[in-house]
Write a structure and sequence with these properties.
eight-stranded mixed beta sheet, Pyrroline-5-carboxylate reductase, about 270 residues, ProC C-terminal domain-like fold, binds NADP nicotinamide-adenine-dinucleotide phosphate, alpha/beta, Rossmann fold, Pyrroline-COOH_reductase, elongated
């Protein structure tokens, strides 16, 4: 199976890095094209991918194509590639934030083309990402399974409705920044109590990583897990209550609310 990337910027390269690390796809089966030959040829050389001279040839030669250009570039790319998508039945997977499946079908000028929309987060580069996926009515179960199998090489995959993509973006796309802030706050507290910053950061990051793995591996809810580490009359419950008194949960929910509100405001403006 050949996988194409139109655009080799931040997100495409994060996905390509994850795919290369997963070692399930031969690197030369990944085809790339972007606006500048110097850019996509350099990326192809770095990861031993196959550079392709134009977008339409890439769509003709690949089985699945990820559209990894900025949303305002998508109409231009789809104009160039519409005939190739139609002739070769190539599966289109858009990474462009905020562009609906209907809008993509309208821009490519074909209502019967299988189109999927995905939203990966930056952690796909380490195969620890989470990607949301949704397909239009033309996407068969086989095609959806094929795309999900590629995305699963990059971390978790969740199928959600288009209406939930904005919420997903806040919870998965922006949240690495929130988690970095939490790790830094923990590390800073460690420094306050005498640890060196490097050591405190490593301790906090590893604690967050292990705890997240526990949540994913366990059938217990996070609340159950909180109870399991809170001994009666102990230190942890004292810390938890002090954090709650300072409004930790409200702060997190307000942060997600503000992220979603800003995204909706931007979508309205665009
Ligand atoms: N970055 C994120 O965290 C993130 C997360 C989720 C979704 N997304 C979505 O991913 C998409 C890409 O974002 P990004 O951050 O990767 O952008 P980016 O770093 O600016 O990369 C954009 C890429 O598009 C290429 N390009 C521009 N015009 C083109 C054309 N006519 N034909 C082919 N390629 C063209 C550019 O080529 P050159 O390099 O040659 O100039 C560049 O490689 C966006 O739609 C964004 O909404 C991004």
């Amino acid at each position: 199976m050949k996988i194409g990337f139109i655009g080799v910027g931040n997100m495409a390269q994060a996905m390509i890095k994850g795919l290369i690390k997963a070692q399930k796809i031969t690197s030369t089966d990944i085809l790339v094209h972007s606006a500048h030959a110097t850019t996509y040829e350099a990326v192809a050389k770095e990861y031993q991918l196959t550079p392709v001279a134009d977008n339409a040839t890439l769509v003709a030669e690949a089985d699945i194509v990820f559209l990894a250009v900025k949303p305002y570039i998508v109409p231009q790319v789809l104009e160039e590639t519409a005939a190739a998508f139609k002739a070769h039945k190539t599966v289109m997977v858009s990474v462009a934030a905020g562009l609906s499946l209907d809008k993509l079908a309208e821009q490519v000028g074909q209502s019967d083309l299988p189109i999927l929309r995905i939203m990966p987060n930056v952690n796909v580069a380490n195969q620890a990402g989470i990607t949301a996926v949704v397909g239009n009515s033309q996407v068969t179960e086989d095609r959806l399974t094929a795309v999900k199998a590629i995305l699963a090489q990059l971390g978790g995959v969740v199928e959600i409705g288009e209406k939930d993509f904005t919420t997903f973006s806040a919870l998965a796309g922006s949240s690495p920044a929130f988690v970095y802030l939490f790790i830094d706050a923990m590390a800073r507290a460690g420094v306050k109590h005498g640890l060196k910053k490097d050591a405190a950061t490593e301790i906090a990051a590893q604690a967050v990583l292990g705890s997240a793995q526990n949540v994913l591996m366990s059938d217990d809810s996070p609340w159950d897990l909180v109870d399991q580490v809170s001994s009666p009359g102990g230190t942890t419950v004292a810390g938890l209550l002090a954090m709650e008194e300072a409004g930790l949960m409200t702060a997190v929910v307000k942060g997600i609310d503000a992220t979603i509100a800003k995204d909706l405001e931007n979508q309205e403006r665009d």
